[in-house]
Amino acid sequence: MCRHLGYIGPTRSVREVITAGEFSLLRQSWDPRDMRGGGTINADGFGAAWWGSTLSRYRSAMPIWSDPALPEMLSKVRSHAVLAAVRSATVGMPVERSACAPFVSKHWAFSLNGRIAGWPDSMVEPAGRLPMVDLLGLEAPTDAALLWMLVRQALRDNSPEVALMQVSTLVTEAAPGSKLNMLLGDGRQLWATTWEHALSTLVDDDRAVISSEPYDRNHEWKEIPDGHLVTARPGHLISTPL
User: Which residue spans traverse the membrane (predicted)?
Assistant: First the structure.
């Protein structure tokens, strides 16, 4: 499993978002505090997406602490909205750049902190609902990449809230025991689910942060209960049961 973070607020460098706080996403790559049986470190790559005039992305199969892009390139890139993740690959899944979140399409960026139980057999029926052209375009042979395909298809006809609810129901019915903390952003708003894994939010009038773990000791962090859908933007936070 992984750790991920979504940020919307005052313009900062992507590096600042990733390294913010005593328990930053960077530190969570080697010292996560709440993996819930999903491994001990997140050293199988990382990625970041950020919004400006267009949606841009950087991904690497290197551990985030050894990739020079973080102190160099990503310290120069500034944005008001960032979605980033560090990866812990599920046993049997490839460790490669294409398998790292965020996955992107148009103005959407997506990450999964979790795993699909019984992969890949459990996903035969849900995957069969996708157009063949989408399956042929799967970025990597991983549960997260397929999950992104399902979410992307659901977004074609539904709001983000409905899309995430539909996919959560579809996957948990097909693969009981899955851990499905999904994170979705469009540069203006963030959406996330909690399903058998940890998630916290930090929202005030200036910023909205959704994170697998609080990155500092700010007392305004809110732990989201399991089985909930979160919608967040600065000054706005809604948490509803899935």
Answer: none
